[in-house]
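Hi R.,

As promised on Friday, here is the backbone we talked about, encoded as structure tokens. Could you run it through your design pipeline when you get a chance and send me back a sequence?
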């Protein structure tokens, strides 16, 4: 993976984590937390979308997939925290 790909992954992760935090009404996780939530959310989103037979292409599709996965991730984390 070259430096350009790493920067794109970090940007998409940051945007997706930030969007998920706004949608879920979280307090925010800071830039590093948003990137981590976005990257992990991307993995979750790709898994869920593939299971549903949906595939997104391009940067916008990657942001949408990562944001959906991050929302699912944050929802599960909130459920576990309440227990």
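Update: got your reply. Pasting your designed sequence below so it's all in one thread:
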């Amino acid at each position: 993976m070259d430096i350009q790909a790493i920067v794109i992954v970090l940007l998409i992760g940051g945007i997706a984590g930030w969007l998920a935090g706004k949608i879920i009404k979280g307090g925010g996780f800071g830039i590093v937390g948003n990137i981590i939530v976005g990257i992990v959310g991307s993995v979750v989103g790709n898994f869920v979308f593939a299971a549903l037979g949906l595939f997104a292409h391009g940067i916008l599709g990657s942001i949408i997939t990562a944001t959906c996965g991050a929302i699912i991730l944050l929802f599960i984390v909130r459920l576990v925290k309440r227990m």
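One thing I noticed while checking it: The chain is about 85% helix and 0% strand.

Thanks again,
M.
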